[in-house]
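ok trying again, last paste got cut off:
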Amino acid sequence: MKTVIEKAGILIEALPYIRTFSGKTFVIKYGGAAMVDENLKNAFAQDIVLLNFIGIKPVIVHGGGPTINAIMEKMGKTPTFIHGQRVTDQETVDIVEMVLGGLINKQIVSLINSHGGLAIGLSGKDGNLIRARKKIIRKISPETGVPEIIDLGLVGEVEKINPRILSSIDQSGFIPVIAPISAGEGGMTLNINADYVAGEVASALKAEKLILLTDVEGILDKKKKLISTLQTKKIKSLVSSGVITGGMLPKIQACQNAIDGNVRKTHIIDGRVPHALLLEIFTQEGIGTEIVK
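nice, full thing came through this time. structure:
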């Protein structure tokens, strides 16, 4: 009986959050171990279906880096990253589109549907969802002190999100699953970092939350302790001091962009934890790092 009462207590704890968030849009970046481990994959799909059933509107943007890396290596290509972003030549972008827009996107859609949801797969090319341009990175040369242009190849950055197709899908009751690829000038395919796409989609939809799943607890301080809440005004100092680096840079920038775009809260959470989404959304303690204005 005690165990049953404890279960009731969990539901009661979740009730105010369900009431607050029903009808709101959550943009969720799905990536890392949660896309690889079978138990975590099923837990993620169950979380998404539950959110949808209680009235929350999930929009999923997914990555797929480990699978892309594995296929590239089988083809004799070595993945290269600069500032956490993949350097992408023509052969690589063909692999990225095949893996993200085809294999992975449809696996996620199928998994959600198998748990009782109604998901539909998209890429940034569908309905002109994502308008993109080629991304240029400028870096100060340590030798000359002069800005250098770093060419990442066929890597894009979001110019604009067209939310019309997502609004239509929402009205039909489907869960959109978005692969972060789009067409740039002249129709060339561009690979876009999924974190950035998620942030821009959240801003365009005026989402209640942006949630990024990753393979660490959240943002860690210099002593490797979790920062549970981070204000955006402190981000710059954490980047300049090297606390935030590598693959966390696109994530924190995506959160900054989303908050600047009037998304109320953003979260970086550990996707290695089963049902991480439910723990973050429906418990007082939460997990991971929340980034707020």
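cool. The radius of gyration is 19 Å. The chain is about 40% helix and 25% strand.
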